[in-house]
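Memo to structure team: turn this sequence into structure tokens by end of day. - J.P.
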Amino acid sequence: MKINSNGYSTIEQAAAAYLRETKEPSLTVETGKESRSFAEILNEKSEKAFEKPSVSFTKHAAQRLSDRNIELSDAQLERLFNGTKEAGDKGINSSLVMVDDLAFIVNTRSNTVVTAMDPGSNDKNVFTNIDGAVIA
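Reply from structure team:
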């Protein structure tokens, strides 16, 4: 009788080779100091895709809104975001976005409101340093 050992000298080696737990292959991406799996990155990106779109406000713009007791509704914020996106899609970098009777100067690259004006704040209605305007 011929016994085929397949190169294993002990039963423990053979058992370890045939009975070890198999792990599913995982793709990892090294980002700077850490290594994350593809699944982790995909989940993070998927969650961000379903977040409510928004714009951010500089300290100056937030102070302007606060000083004038201006509170934007969710609908107005959405229109402001859509106007900003529309301006960016047209290649405008710094845009005037009009929402109702409010005027916002927006950096479209960063979706950031730089300053905000209501009808009483700008008596001359002159806007400088913009490349376009959107009425949202």
